[in-house]
Amino acid sequence: MRRIFESFVLVDWSASSKPVQGEDSIWIAAFSQNARKQWQAPKMSNPTTRTAAEKEINEILSAFAKRGDRTFIGFDFPFGFPAGAAAGLKAPGTAPWRATWDLIASLIKDKPDNDNNRFQVGANFNRRLTGAAFPFWGCPAKDVQTTLSSKRPRDHGAGDLAEMRAADLVAKAQSPWKLFYQGSPGGQAMVGIPVVRRLRDAPERAARSAIWPFETGWAALTPETIDPFSWIFAEIYPSLLPAAPQAGEVKDAAQLRVLGEKLTQLDDEGKLAALFGPPHAASEDERARVVAEEGWIFGAGALR
């Protein structure tokens, strides 16, 4: 099996509560091919808000679709939480991952200027999960309340939801319960999941889109399994690969560029399909948790 995708869109997300550019903001890298089927240098953009980013991504995906491309779309925030979260949240729905996504989308309010209520939603989720300021944590002093603390309140113990997903441990990523401060994967997930949900469910894409690995399975792709899809959405973690910024290049943009160059190279070599499966001999229990609720970071344990 040779090249799977004709284009890639990689997104470095941000949970910022105000418009921002430069470091620690949203970066979009779009990789496409020229008429000779050769990969071109990525088109980079740095929108100031999530609203502007979503609009731009929609436009990019539509443009690629008109070319007949199959597109990989990666976002660098958790697509799931540790196993058991959906049940603890009492999120309605049969698929735990989708139930959690739908609940987040129903509660998050994210304004065009980036002002958002992720801390209120985090406190709401803690109330549902434990009735205390746990497991979600992190917020400015003004947002502290009974069920949300500014700092990590305690360690995870026996009987608690896990602090990390299996993918986080392999990738050495931060905890998805973290809502604030540097990185804040949980905060980014809160304001990012509703965006990916809308992009995936857009009428023009819904029938041929899939969220990996929830809707594709956690297995190497084959021509048969990829054929139904024109858009595959996946969780990425650009820090998996070392990236030295070029002159004048922001670190976030450099990481997307390097990751995109690696993914396009692997696709050219016919090696990308394997990365859609586990990078190790996963147990049946781990496979079930990953596909039902936790998700996986694309390339974790495999990219070098």
How would you describe what is shown here?
With 304 residues, this protein is α/β, with parallel strands linked by helices. It has a domain at 7-78 and 186-294. Helices cover 34% and strands 9% of the residues. The protein has nine helices and six strands, in the order E-E-E-H-E-H-H-H-H-H-E-H-E-H-H. The protein has a six-stranded mixed sheet with strand order 3-2-1-4-6-5, with helices on both faces. The radius of gyration is 19 Å and the shape is globular. The model has no long low-confidence stretch (mean pLDDT 97).
Mean pLDDT: 97
Low-confidence stretches: none
Structural class: alpha/beta
Order of strands in the sheet with the most strands?
Answer: 3-2-1-4-6-5
Reported for the largest beta sheet, the result is: 6 strands, mixed
Q: Count helical runs.
A: 9
Distance between the termini: 21 Å
Strand tally:
6
Strand content: 5-15%
Order of helices and strands: EEEHEHHHHHEHEHH
Radius of gyration: 19 Å
- The helix content, as a percent range, equals 25-40%
> Could you say which overall geometry the principal axes of the C-alpha atoms support?
globular
